[in-house]
Amino acid sequence: MAQNILVPIDGSPQAQEAFEYALEEFPDATITVITVLNPAEMSAGGTEMGMASYADQWMDAEEERAEQRFEEAREVAEGYGADLRSETVLGRPARAIVDYAEENAIDQVVMGSHGRDGVSRILLGSVAETVVRRSPCPVTVVR
């Protein structure tokens, strides 16, 4: 039975491990890698008059980073013969991941325990913890 697996990637080693785990454990699945661009991460980059320009520069740079991650993921997936899709979404990471799973018939989320921001709780990163609590489907957290 084919499954739809969602793997959030953010450039962290934990996300890479989760992606490779998904490729190994779900060889017949369609795997979607998702990168969430969080505007809250955009720091004030100038004067009020220059904010729109700075926001555009930030978005362009983040989209370029996301595309680089997707290209690296495609190269890895080729070795597994995997059916890989990629998506970039805008929003708060946990909410965006849960919303994407709800709206796209995702059967399982596979994600790293901590992302690139290093913010963590006792056992899980705050994004992973929120996704586990709110996801409409099973979540596998890879450490």
Can you walk through the features of this model?
The chain is an alpha/beta fold and 143 residues long. The protein has a single domain (4-142), classed as HUPs (Rossmann fold), CATH 3.40.50. Helices cover 44% and strands 21% of the residues. The protein contains four helices and five strands; from the N terminus they run βαβαβαβαβ. The chain has helices spanning 13-25, 51-80, 93-103, 126-134, and strands at residues 4-8, 30-37, 83-90, 108-112, 139-142. It has a five-stranded parallel β-sheet with strand order 3-2-1-4-5, with helices on both faces. The longest helix is centred in the middle third of the chain and has 30 residues, at 51-80. The two termini are 27 Å apart.
Give a brief rundown of this model.
This protein is of the alpha/beta class. It is 44% helix and 21% strand. The chain has helices at 13-25, 51-80, 93-103, 126-134; strands at residues 4-8, 30-37, 83-90, 108-112, 139-142.
The helix-and-strand class reads alpha/beta
Low-confidence stretches: 117-123
Strand content: 15-25%
Order of helices and strands: EHEHEHEHE
How many structurally independent domains? 1
- Bulk shape: globular
**What is the level-2 CATH architecture name?**
3-Layer(aba) Sandwich
According to DSSP, the number of beta strands is 5
Largest sheet: 5 strands, parallel
CATH superfamily: HUPs
Pfam families: Usp (PF00582)
InterPro entries: Rossmann-like_a/b/a_fold (IPR014729), Universal_stress_UspA (IPR006015), USP_A (IPR051688), UspA (IPR006016)
Domain UspA: 1-143
Protein name: Universal stress protein
